[in-house]
Specification:
58 residues; 4-stranded antiparallel beta sheet; 55% strand; globular
């Protein structure tokens, strides 16, 4: 299964793969957050312009 990007800023990429959502820090080249969607795949996401928050839905 292939990861699908939901949102991206200059510092972060928010993406989903199957029922998981990941927040990846491009500056340190590392995953910094991961969550399992209780049921189904995330269909949308956004990272705030200040890079202080992210929101997922679906």
């Amino acid at each position: 299964m292939k990861a699908r990007p939901l949102s991206e800023t200059d510092s972060y990429v928010l993406f989903q793969e199957y029922e998981y959502v990941f927040l990846f820090d491009k500056d340190i080249n590392n995953e910094i957050w991961k969550t399992y969607m209780v049921y189904g795949d995330a269909t949308c996401g956004v990272i705030g312009l200040s890079n202080e928050w992210a929101l997922i839905g679906g």
